[in-house]
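Order emerges. One example.
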Amino acid sequence: MKEISKEEFEKEVIEGGKVVLDFYSTECPPCEAVAPKFEGLSELYGNDIKFVKMFRQQNKELAEKLGVKSSPTLLFFDNGVQLPKTLNGGIKRSDIIDQLDSMLPAERVKEIKSQLKPIVSEFDVLILGAGPGGLTAGLYLCQSKINTVLIDIALPGGNVATTHEVSNYPGFIDPQPGYMLSHNMSEQTKLCGTVYKVAVDVTKIDLEKKEVVIDEFETIKAKRIIIATGTSPNLMGIAGERELKGKGISYCATCDAKYYGGKEVVVIGGGNSAVEEADFISKFASKITIVHQFDAFTANKQAQEKLFANPIISTLFEHEPRSFVRDGNKIITEIENLKTKEITKLTSDGVFVFIGMKPNIEMFKDKLVLDSWGYVKTDEDMRTSIQGVYAVGDVISKKYRQITTAVADGTIAAIAIAKELD
């Protein structure tokens, strides 16, 4: 795998035969998550397809010319022709493999796949998810000398890693960058001895058997499982959203705000995330319009006061988006006035969506007892309805979801398990 600049693009990519190009950025958790997948697959497919990467911030002009709007973005080329399939954002290993396979003859793909040898690993405790709850559980367990593995489809940190600033975590007088807080948590747990298997594809979860398969070839077995899979941003489900995701519509200010220097942005939402992230985006953008369905924000008062004092931010209360359309380099957001039912259009360079979260339980939601909102029910020791399976953090049914409450959940589960396994 080779890193190239725009000056090398013609030779390495256009004249390079079959090529996959990774546009990455710094301070971009999704970029860090895809990097080991990209490197690992280069070892498998590298004799047939060239793997190259390019630092997007230093090659912005070329990136924009190629239609790259967010990081990371993978582009695929075959003898100088850019293939229509583009991958961006939270890229799964299986999606990369599917595209690489499509570029090669079936027989050659079969030969490559034959190089993957199934393996089995065994641990005392398996933690699914590396947010604050999972990291804290891993810390307490490894300090109890319990053999623990932590699995995540991304890098450690969870949603904290993509929060630009945390001002209410005990022990820090000054606000902390989210990525730094999560990094310190992760390093503490890793140095303690918890085994990390992160930036992987989780292909199968069997809670009853306490088995998880990652990257289609490694089976991990454990005596106990802690579910700490957290939550993901809600989608609005309106026209144009999925098509423009990662191509002008973003759900991560930390990842993409830096690319809107001097540009106009629309922010959807009115809770803490929308208000606080809008303030962060204002460090780059020249104008921000917030679209919120209610007549007032639901964010904390301190964040609201800061936002209202920001001269480049304006708000359209009691409005909802109805569709997104690309017009050249612009995004047209069609919005409805909920009082008058009038439809108007907002033209911007990009859209950020912050409208709440949903629990990440798709692979096992039918196996557990859930509350009416789809969150996992637990007892006071964080036990779920399945023997030997615990759940912590934002994924569980509770009144408040904060970093501190996730840390508390992880502590409780780890202590309960340590006593059981002692």
Q: What stands out?
A: Residues 241-353 form a domain with the FAD/NAD(P)-binding domain fold (CATH 3.50.50.60). The two ends are 46 Å apart (CA to CA).
